[in-house]
Amino acid sequence: MTTIDPRTRLLLEAPIVPTVLRLAAPNMLVMITQASVGLIETYFVGKLGNDALAAMALVFPIVMLMQMSSVGAIGGGITSSIARALGARRRDDADALVLHALVVALGFGLAFTSALLLGGRWLYAEMGGTGASLEAALVYSDLVFAGAVLVWLFNSLAAVIRGTGNMAVPSNVTVAGAVVLIPLSPLLIFGWGPIPGMGIAGGAAALLLYYLGGTLAFWLYLRSPGSLLKPKFAGVRLRWPLFRDILRIGLVGMIATVSTNLSIGIATALSGHFGPDAIAGYGTAARLEYLLVPLAFGFGAPLVAMVGTCIGAGDRERALRAAWIGAVMTFVITEAIGLAAAIFPHSWLLLFGNEPAMLLAGTQYLHVVGPLYGFFGVGQVLHFASQGAGRLWWPVTGNLVRLTVAGLGGWLALRWGGDLIHVFIAQGAGLVVYGLVIAATIAGGAWFGRVGWPRSTAALMRRLTPQ
Q: How far, in Å, CA of 382 to CA of 262, rounded?
């Protein structure tokens, strides 16, 4: 019988709360740092003027779509597949999944490159980009997406390592890269001494150098004696069942990721009806919402590994208990951030600009949507936990309902003569239904069969806190 690695045993047997907290801390640091990479660039690019800031607001949802797809959707599929293989003691399959994950990453990276180089101008124009802001958006976008493969390889290799329960290596590599990026980004944007300033393109170049260095570091770790997985390429045959195991979770997760980013993309386009300053204000404020994704993923990635390992080992009750504990923790943190942003909106917005119209739009968004961030956090973390369970239908449904409420509601608000704040009200309503749909269906048994809500409060509590 194959012995269980101590890290796998930890996921199966250790107390849930301290284990989740211990694994979440470095992983949250990873995701906050990675999200901060974009904020660092926005801060420096904002010094180039409002057109450059509006350009970043146009491109950022698409960059985040790629990030969330490679980290949370396909990356979650990779982490879940490896965790379940290790939980079931299929070590050979776990090792082989590394090669399959790299092939998947290459394919998606090339797809993003082709789509954005060919269709970027049309897309950003549809989102409300015009004139100088549109041209600046294309300069940044063309360079970033020309190197999309690097982003996909970086995040897929990090997902491979997380699948073993190791959150420390991705944390260390990401933080070290950010330390290098902080001086590198302004150096390439503004120039210094003999190095000429590249403007907004310098931010894109610095970002790609960050992902290149991180990808090499992850690969060196996987080839080292300290790695639990021992990837082999020579003589390894690509197998459809392993691709399917990643993609059946990852592709369904992609639907949810696209819905999340499309909601923000639509809101950006609707904000465009009120001019570039409204786009800049909404885009700057909505970056705080994007910061909630890495916070939720900080708890979500350990839950993918823990839930997947427990499901692979047949311990359903522990898997479900871990998910609810993670959901409560995430709600508390994200709701606190949202309330703070609603009370002190300028503390966030003034980091990126001080144009009155931009500040007004951003403040309206944070006043309306900030107090509802807890629902977004719950939906996000339960989505990640559902990846570990291999059951994503209802989380995806929650995302689609959010998209419908936010997109259709915002469009109707403008059609009926509403103002920008009514677009934001629709966004907030979308977050509420998103969190409630996912939580309610998991409570109803969505992971283990058809949803059937308990008829009594006592039965509901037994499902929420299984013994």
A: 20
Is residue 201 classed as helix, strand or coil in its secondary structure?
A: helix
Which residue type does 183 have? P
Q: What are the distances in angstroms from CA 391 to CA 78, 169, 395, 464? A: 14, 28, 8, 17
Reported as a single tens digit per residue, the pLDDT across 336-392 is: 999 998 999 888 887 776 777 788 888 888 998 889 999 999 998 998 888 778 787
Q: Give Cα 116 to chain centroid, integer Å.
A: 19
Asked if the model's pLDDT at residue 224 lies above 50, the reply is yes
pLDDT greater than 60 at residue 402: yes
At residue 25, what are phi and psi to the nearest 5 degrees?
A: -60, -55
pLDDT digit string (tens) for 339-353? 998 999 888 887 776
What's at 455, amino acid-wise? R
288 burial (CB, 10 Å; 0-12 / 13-18 / 19+) is: buried
- Strand, coil or helix: 452: coil
Confidence band of 114 (pLDDT split at 50, 70, 90):
very high
Residue 86 near residue 162 (C-beta atoms within 8 A): no
Is the Cα dihedral 400, 63, 60, 25 positive or negative?
Answer: positive
pLDDT over threshold 60, residue 466: no
Report the candidate in 386, 310, 401, 360 with the shortest Cα–Cα distance to residue 8: 310
**pTM, full prediction:** 0.70
Q: What is the DSSP letter of 446?
A: G
Rg of the chain (C-alpha set): 22
Residue 195 is classified by DSSP as: E
3-state SS track over 349-379:
HCCCCCCHHHHHHHHHHHHHHHHHHHHHHHH
Question: Nearest CA to 4 among 165, 117, 175, 148?
Answer: 165
Average pLDDT over residues 289-298: 77
Query: Other C-beta atoms within 10 Å of 147: how many?
Result: 18
In Å, how far from its chain's centre is CA 323? 18
Q: What is the pLDDT of residues 263-273, one digit of tens each?
A: 777 887 787 77
DSSP state of 345: H
Q: What is the DSSP string of 255-280?
A: HHHHHHHHHHHHHHHHHGGG-HHHHH
Whether residue 27 contacts residue 162, with contact meaning beta carbons closer than 8 Å, is answered with yes
Angle between helices 168-190 and 148-162 in degrees, nearest 10:
160
Reading the block at residue 386, the tokens are 């559902």
Using CA atoms, how far apart are residues 318 and 143, in angstroms rounded to an integer? Answer: 45
Domain coordinates in residue numbering, the chain: 6-464
Q: Which two tokens stand for residue 33?
A: 């740092």
Q: Residue 253 corresponds to which tokens in the numbers above?
A: 């997760």
Question: Quick one: average pLDDT of 159-169?
Answer: 86
